[in-house]
# Entry
Amino acid sequence: MQQNTDTFSNLPPYIPLEEADLDAFQAFYLDFLGKKPHDQLSFLKAAYILSRPDLRGYVHRYAMYRVVIGRLLGNKRYRDILLSFPSTIKNVYDLIFDFSKVYLEGGETPHRLLSQQSVEFLDCTEMFRLDIDGLLSKLPAMIPQDSQALRWYLDAGTTLEGCKFLLIILADQPFVVLLAARATVENAVARLENYLRESLGERYEEQLVEFFIIGGGFLRTEAGRIIIGGRSLLYDPKIASPQQPRLRKFLEDFYIYKFSVAKGILESECGKVVEIAFPSLDR
# Structure
């Protein structure tokens, strides 16, 4: 298994987003990638990249050099691959600008070689993404023990409290993982990894595995229904000023998409209607 060297425990704390970050996000996400505003999974993955302090600068760089990089990568398909895994955006940028340092002089030949190298790297990344997407598409989007426990509480009409959920995306496949009140994100990721390893066997070790840790909140059952809401203090994006309309709209869209994806998974796996308690944007 090829895995990102970053661990979740050694990442710096999330820094609140400023208006300048949203300017870069719009230029990168809408203008450069050509994404639609309501593409939920793409928005959540791009929001995760923007929120991570070690990757946010790359969103700004792509926004700044979007015309140059756009000419190198060519069609929209190659740009779309940038959201395959969290580190892809960094790896492609570093490849381009490391190459540019070697070939200081411009000209058609260096440009063609750089474009070819970039496209070959993205082709390889796409192969990893398609391979793991094909494997994951056959699996439930929840760890079986989690969905079984939830169905037991729902069928028994028993109240489940003190539970959290985490929304995680691997390539293009979202998963909902349940956590006890005191469990950490590392616990949730380890449980998901064990589930995937047991389900896929040796094929899992052949894959490129990098998780988008989107965010989460609370989950409880009440009178045979599921209620989700709240926020993840560690992984949901933070904004510098809740009163600023653009920042507020970004966070609002994030919550809508996060809960929409989680709701779809929970309803599919548990067969019950899920209600959403949206958190306040003012805290």
Notes: The longest strand covers residues 211-222. The domain at 144-277 is CATH 3.50.20.20 (Pyruvoyl-Dependent Histidine Decarboxylase; Chain B). The mean pLDDT is 89.
